[in-house]
Amino acid sequence: MSQFFTIHPENPQLRLIRQAANIIKKGGVVVYPTDSAYAIGCQLENKIALDRIRQLRKLDEKHNFTLVCRDLSELSTYAIVDNSAFRLIKSNTPGPYTFILKASPEVPRRLLHPKRKTIGLRVPDSKIVQDLLSELNQPLMSVSLVLPDHDYPFVDAQEIHERLCSQVDLIIDGGPCSMTPTTIVDLVEGTPQILRVGKGDPKVFE
After folding, report:
1. Are 144 and 153 spatial neighbours (Cβ–Cβ below 8 Å)?
2. Environment class of residue 14 by beta-carbon count within 10 Å: exposed (0-12), middle (13-18) or buried (19+)?
3. Which of 106, 128, 131 is nearest to 117 (CA)?
4. In this structure, how many other beta carbons lie within 10 angstroms of the beta carbon of residue 158?
5. Under CATH, which number does the domain 3-205 receive?
6. Domains in the chain: boundaries
7. Which secondary-structure segment (H or E) carries 51?
8. Confidence (pTM)
9. What backbone phi and psi angles, to 5 degrees, belong to 182?
10. Beta carbons of 56 and 142 less than 8 angstroms apart
């Protein structure tokens, strides 16, 4: 049975943030709110937790996972970014965008797209996520919470708990989220390519 934390979206309770970080550090899988939809994540190096997410989401090896980062200081550690791409990312973060970038050697191979060697990076505009990442002191490995029999992400934490309470270790209720996922922007070749139009305005990359 998963734990269920109700955390204030603007003033997250430090005690609960620390408990959530400890659950993740011990190998837990967590459902958490973002500035777009609810997402599901785990510790970066934890293969068992990653496999649990793959099984829950029914994901194949070609699916791009996302590293959710607290700020751009972590960007150069996990991605290879030229100056023009960095300026674009800096101008649009934090926010509801996922950027596809060429991964650095620091990223575990199991997280990469098998052919392109790319990784998604994201800096959400969410106080809960920012505080959680600060406590973890590393990115979360994450994907949107869209189940195989659903077309859209979950928006309500209570509904998530009813559906997934036996399959995850923690559900963070930060209030209702959007049903719209992030806008995905491919910056691998330098010129922005919109792979999915979501909550983030794609016009800023035209």
Report:
1. yes
2. exposed
3. 106
4. 11
5. 3.90.870.10
6. 3-205
7. helix 47-57
8. 0.92
9. -70, 160
10. no
